[in-house]
C-alpha cells in the first residue's frame, strides 16, 4: 500500500494487498479487503465496512463506498461517486464455474469473458442495487435502491426497477427536476431545480447543463 505518510487511515481489521495505491485522506474500515496489484483508490475516499475491491479496480477521489459493497475486476469509479450499502457489481455476461466438460474450474482472474463497467463522476448507486457489466453509468446519474441495471444509464437520469428504467431527470444535488414516462425525457428549453436552482435543458433524450457550477467535470 502506498499513500501520503500519516494521511491514510486503515482499520487494523482491513486487508490491503501489495500493489494497492491509496490517496491521502482516505479511510478504509473494518473487514475491507482490497486486492492487488493494480488497484488504485483516490484521495479523501471512504471504503465502508466489509467491502471487497478486486485487483485492477480504479476508484477516483472523494468516493463513498458504504458497507458490504462488492467491486469486481473491470470496474472503474469516477470522482465523487456514492455507492450505497450492499451494491454488487458484475463482470461476466455468461458466467460458469467450470469449462463446458465440467473437468476444470474456470480461473477466477480476468479472461476473455471479463467485461468492464464505468461509473462516471458524481453518480449515485442506491443501496442493494445490482450492476450488470459492459455498460456505463453517466455523470450525476442516480440508480434507485434495489435496482438491477442491465443497460447504460445516461447522465443526469434517475433509473429504478428490475430491470432499471429511466423515470426522471435528476439535478447535481440529487433532486428530480423532470419526471417522465417512456424511454427518454421530452424536449424542454429550460428546467430549474426546485432545490438548488441549477438549470438544465433536454434535447433528443440528452440532458445539458446550462450553467454548471465550478470548473467543468
Produce the secondary structure layout:
Layout: E1 9-10, E2 15-16, E3 21-22, E4 27-28, E5 33-34, E6 40-41, E7 46-47, E8 52-53, E9 58-59, E10 64-65, E11 70-71, E12 75-77, E13 82-83, E14 88-89, E15 117-119, E16 124-125, E17 130-131, E18 135-137, E19 142-143, E20 148-149, E21 157-161, E22 164-170, E23 176-179, E24 188-192, E25 199-203, E26 206-209
Parallel strand pairs: 1-4, 2-5, 3-6, 4-7, 5-8, 6-9, 7-10, 8-11, 9-12, 10-13, 12-15, 13-16, 14-17, 15-18, 16-19, 17-20, 19-21
Antiparallel strand pairs: 21-22, 22-23, 24-25, 25-26
How would you characterize the overall build of this protein?
The structure is a single chain. By secondary structure, the protein is mainly beta. The chain has a single domain (9-95, 114-181), classed as UDP N-Acetylglucosamine Acyltransferase, domain 1. The chain is built from no helices and 26 strands. The protein has strands spanning 9-10, 15-16, 21-22, 27-28, 33-34, 40-41, 46-47, 52-53, 58-59, 64-65, 70-71, 75-77, 82-83, 88-89, 117-119, 124-125, 130-131, 135-137, 142-143, 148-149, 157-161, 164-170, 176-179, 188-192, 199-203, 206-209. The strands form 5 sheets. The chain has a 10-stranded mixed sheet, with no helix packed on it. Strand 24 and strand 25 (199-203) form a beta hairpin. It is globular, with a radius of gyration of 18 Å.
